């Protein structure tokens, strides 16, 4: 090989090697938020929901949870939850148990759970947030409070997968 070609070949290998340093997912970084649903006094469901956006709504978090939902959607009012995972009401009779029971929307704060001041469609969920839903009596759920569970308990770190793989070219002399 001529000595004048060696720098060109090394440059080509360097550029090729750098081009192989790509994310495993060509999409935006994966984020996660937690969801806790109390169906009754004895049954609680948790879900770790992944998303690629920087933030999503509480309604989107619930819809992406994979749980069976009965919801009414209104362009002006947003999402109204009738049933989750077979508990609650059908869309055709969304307030079937009112005033005895409805779905309450809760937010996990550092100090514990608090009732959401906005509906799920108006809530901004960011990575690491935890939202909760409780079926029961409005203003004091008959199903009991949501469990004291953190984001880390719902979305365990071992579930996270590596986002990058590095492929380096093998150069021999």
Molecular structure report:
By secondary structure, the chain is of the alpha+beta class. It contains 3 helices and 12 strands. It is elongated, with a radius of gyration of 24 Å. Mean pLDDT is 82; it is low at 158-169.
Output the keywords.
single chain; 3 helices; 173 residues; Ferric Hydroxamate Uptake Protein, Chain A, domain 1; 12 strands; three-stranded antiparallel sheet; 14% helix; alpha+beta; five-stranded mixed sheet
Question: SSE layout and pairings?
Answer:
Layout: H1 6-19, E1 22-23, E2 31-38, E3 44-51, E4 56-57, H2 58-63, E5 69-74, E6 78-84, E7 87-88, E8 102-109, E9 112-115, E10 124-125, E11 130-136, H3 151-154, E12 164-165
Q: Count of helical segments? A: 3
The run of helices and strands is HEEEEHEEEEEEEHE
Structural class: alpha+beta
Q: Care to count the β-strands?
A: 12
Taking all Cα atoms into account, the compactness measure Rg is: 24 Å
Poorly predicted runs are 158-169
CATH arch. level architecture: Beta Complex
Ends: how far apart? 12 Å
CATH topology: Ferric Hydroxamate Uptake Protein, Chain A, domain 1
Quick gist of this model?
The protein is α+β, with helices and mostly antiparallel strands and 173 residues long. Helices cover 14% and strands 34% of the residues. The protein has one domain (31-159): Ferric Hydroxamate Uptake Protein, Chain A, domain 1 (Beta Complex), CATH 2.170.130.30.
